[in-house]
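Protein modeling request. Please complete all fields; requests missing the sequence field cannot be processed.
Requester role: graduate student
Desired output: 3D structure, token encoding
Chains: 1
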Amino acid sequence: MVATWLIIGIAVFLLIVFIYRSQNTIYMTTLLQGKIFYLFIILIILFLAFSLSHIYKAYNLDITTLSGVGNATRVYFAWLKSLFSNFGKVSGYVVQQDWILGNATK
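Delivered output (106 residues):
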């Protein structure tokens, strides 16, 4: 599963680099400037779709009944809360690290 996401991430990154390198930069920025809202909405929908798919598979949820949908909603928001909590912990850990290697004056 992780390898699949890694391959997808690399492919998307390479596609973005290819598009950026092959097109006129000013044209690409003006194109994105008008469509940034739609791009943001598409990214949110993709995040919701992939995260709901992950939660559905990981917790074997039943969404055929109303109580199952309620349970799935609780599990999803608990997962989302832990995702943001872990993101905050990792960000705090990164900020507290000493990123200077040795004495910079030498």
